[in-house]
Amino acid sequence: MGAAPRCPPWALLALAAAMALPGPLLPAPALQPQPHPEPLLLPHGPGHGDAALERGDDSRSAALELSRALRFYGTAVRSLHVSVATNGIIAVNEPSNEEKYLGQFPVSFGAIAPFMADLDTTDGRGNVYYREDSSSEVLKLASDYIKRGFPETTFEPSSVVIVTWKLVAPYQGPGEDPTLEEKRNTFQAVLASSDSSSYAIFLYPEDSLQFYSTYSKNDDGKIPAMVGFSQASTNYYFWEKPGSYNIIANDEDSIRNLHKSSNAGKKGVWVFEIGSSSDSIVPAKISNVLESVESSEQDQEMTSKPFMSDYGSTEIRQQYVTSNFPTAKAPPRQFPAQQFPPQEPQVIDVEEFDETGIVFRYHTDVQQTCANNRHQCSVHAICKDYPNGFCCSCIAGYKGNGRQCVAEGSPQRVNGKVKGRIFVGNNPVPVTFENTDLHSYVVMNQGRAYTAISTIPETLGYSLLPLASIGGIIGWMFAVEQQGYKNGFSVTGGEFTRQTEVTFLGNNEKLVIKQKFSGIDEHGHLTISTEMEGRIPEIPSGASVHIEPYTELYHTSSSVITSSSTREYTVTEPERDGVASTYTGAYQWRQTISFDECIHDESLHATSATQQLSVDSVFVLYNRDEQILRYAMSNSIGPISDGSADINRNPCYTGTHNCDTNAICRPGTGNRFFCECSIGFRGDGNVCYGVEKTRCQHEQEVALASGGAFFQREMRVAQFVPQCDEHGNYLPTQCHSNTGYCWCVDRDGNEIDGTRSGPGVQPPCLSTAAPPVAIGPSVRPDTIPLPPGTHLLFAQSGKIEHVPLEGNNMKKNGAKALLHIPDKVIIGVAYDCMDKMVYWTDISGPSISRASLHGGEPTTIIKTDLGSPEGIAVDHLGRNIFWTDSQLDRIEVARLDGRQRRILFDTGLVNPRAIVVDPVRGNLYWTDWNREAPKIETSYMDGTNRRILVKDDLGLPNGLTFDPYSSMLCWVDAGTKKLECMNPNQFGRRKIVEGIQYPFSVTSYGKNLYYTDWRRDAVVAVDHMVSIENDNFQPHKRSRLYGITTAFAQCPGGHNYCSVNNGGCTHLCLATPGGRTCRCPDNTVGVDCIERN
């Protein structure tokens, strides 16, 4: 008898791996070598209750109704199509035929693809098994795999879907590669779900993948298999917009590597979070350190080989320590970064048994290199390997630390929150606040930083004036750099923590400030959080504070920057008896800044260890009316100096040059300099224009170049090419050039429901993209007080203008801007004649704000739970505002200060826009330009008695006005091109004028109706008595005009039951004809509110 066969080491390793997992995995004898060892796979096959897919080349199963919803890209899926499963796909919704998707990714339907290829199970060449399982043993196995990849997760699955492709063959056409004939693949996908999230596990046993490509039926040669995830595309009438997608592997080397590598620390195991509150796919965060490593050089090479990057149309930087995991998504996002610099090589001890029972021990180093960490660098940076790691550095034209890079000379924005607990003077009760907004605007090429902190109570605001360095840290971050010196952003990339201790000399009060900067968010803005706690001296209300220019030394050593200084400030108290007393205070300032630096590149440490920050001018202000604290300062950084050196006087370093805000100031000798436009801009440096491609421009370019291939399928009627504005944003109205159909899109180019219009009709779409801001905001963006009299107020994107009225005539030479808000898109405008306040809606925020016509800063009164607020109306008698929201499809009411919100209607609305009130009679009117069924509706102001007033012969009813003197309701229609009026209490309507061009909004005063027109960029006056246009006014700057309203010199006469004492209501008083209704706001938990009619 011959000797018993020796058991190879891999079989014992497989046995050990199987024993490591609880519960039985395979009934096969552990030591018997198998052609396709499967120690990784969860139990499967008919004996475990699996259904078997019908054998074939392109078989599909019926939908598997799930007991627990699968969450996929943020959407819950109850019915799962385990279809086209022959081809290595789990389809989340109905798939197309294989000839339309094989060889392409993303696919048009939602797909989970552990191995998408042309597979074939005919004639007994393999099986596909599937089932849903909630047994405790299987749930435990799935949970163990997930926790390998996500060790900190508390996820516990309640149901899993298991799909197993067992010994499946590649499709073989006649006369094709005979070497593929006997090759077979085995792999498994496990989808685990709880109430709130879902995970996918892809399992590839050792040697289970014997082929990596299949031949195309379309004679395209061999097509590599594809592993990844694809969200269903969105279908429009004539084109298809791809969804998000994630590619894990799409070339033969990557596929071959699947069973030898992992993102969960165990060979052949790949784990992903595929759905939760996020709409992204998140790979496991365990680096490619495997618990068993092959000893051959070939396998070591394969283990470290990165997967292929394929970003589709949009590159997204995934910041994880796993292999490159590319994503294409709309809109772009940035993901949180792991620790930087890279960790030291990890040493893992591994045990392996041979047939003698001897245990061999060895270890492996996992080198952090650019090959598997390029994604940790900015897209505007290069990655360079060093003996012990890698470093990132920004390319020419960009500034930063390589992890984060911004274009040189480009203005920057910083947003964040502030909270605090501060004792003021001897007061035993602290002032506490939280969730307070901080916004900063930086003109980088001048080193000027403007910082505003809102809703700081007066009891604290004046006392915080000396602490300009709360915002001064932003000035340090973007200080003008002298040659050879670096500002804070170049050193830290805007990712650091700062702890500051302020000691006020005299009474020894102390304040501790903690700030955390978290880098650049998905909007391209830096983010900051600030906490303050301690005691500060009291500064009397109404006082002013002056701070002289100062210098401060910053010392850098091994990822830590320290600084200390003593500063003085002068307080001028409010005048008493014509005398204003002054006194001087002082404090000592100590701060420590901690950040991660790349330790491998010695050249990064060439910057001087000590640098001097020079703050040339400081301005501090507290506005007690708006409770806003403002700091403004000009900053530069360079060598220790007394300021007398020639280099310090160069305009580039003092910020006194005349370069465009999107330009770089290049210093020459002495006081000479020249201006150079930043990356993405062109011009002479004094004036720069943006040229960097936006997403719209990119899609437009690809569509024109590819003949429509970008949209993933053949066009049914010629191709659609997106249209972009001069700044590269999607035009709000998109039209198909061949068919003439038009529709509205949001800022990401997605079609808005209910807006598609037939040939020859353009829907009245609104752009949510604010025009680029050319300069920084002024320190006090106040309204300009209006002279006495009646005025027209109208919106023109980022500003509100006014035209005085003399009788019924526009006094055009008196027209001027009332308010500039350059980063907003103002749509609706309304006026409160009692308090002389203007109210407006902004769809770029979105938000609702107001400002006094007597002058002063604007105030945002509503900025949460808004989609696209458009029309707005003021009930000056009941002291309420009403507005429409065309994205949330609802109409709401609130008090004039934005409190006590209540939804009046959230059904039966598609595109609500204009809204007006008749407060004396208690009626509400609004338009809905739904392309399917446009209408004008009315109700009482409490939301009762809702009914359609006009529905016939309407096209695009944009504007609506109610004349309080004649009781006429009038509207402008961009579809019928008419201006019409009616008495709401009588039948019939009267056409005032027709053939107008593209009206948007309308208001009335005296015998005239005034409307804004998009085609004419004008305010047009029409005498409604004789039905004749009698005047028009075009602002100096030509652009679209939006909402218009009349600012009456005196309120119209009349009253309602809410005029006095709020109608006796505890909260909202809403007028009705001959009465009123008391209503409670929504979400009134714990509020003592009484409702009554």
UniProtKB/TrEMBL annotation:
Q: Which InterPro entries match?
A: 6-blade_b-propeller_TolB-like (IPR011042), Cueball_EGF_LRP_Nidogen (IPR050778), EGF (IPR000742), G2_nidogen/fibulin_G2F (IPR006605), GFP (IPR009017), Growth_fac_rcpt_cys_sf (IPR009030), LDLR_classB_rpt (IPR000033), NELL2-like_EGF (IPR024731)
Report the SS bond pairs: 735-742
UniProt feature, compositional bias: Pro residues: 29-40
Domain EGF-like: from-to ranges:
648-689
Q: Cite the NIDO domain residue spans from the record.
A: 114-277
Q: What is the lineage of its organism?
A: Eukaryota, Metazoa, Chordata, Craniata, Vertebrata
- Cross-referenced Pfam families, in alphabetical order? EGF_3, FXa_inhibition, G2F, Ldl_recept_b, NIDO, Thyroglobulin_1
PANTHER family, sorted: NIDOGEN-1 (PTHR46513:SF6), VITELLOGENIN RECEPTOR-LIKE PROTEIN-RELATED-RELATED (PTHR46513)
> Does the record bear Thylakoid in its keywords?
no
Compartments, as annotated in UniProt: Secreted, Extracellular space, Extracellular matrix
**Under what name is this protein listed?**
Nidogen 1
- The superkingdom of the source organism is Eukaryota
Keywords in alphabetical order? Calcium, Disulfide bond, EGF-like domain, Extracellular matrix, Glycoprotein, Secreted, Signal
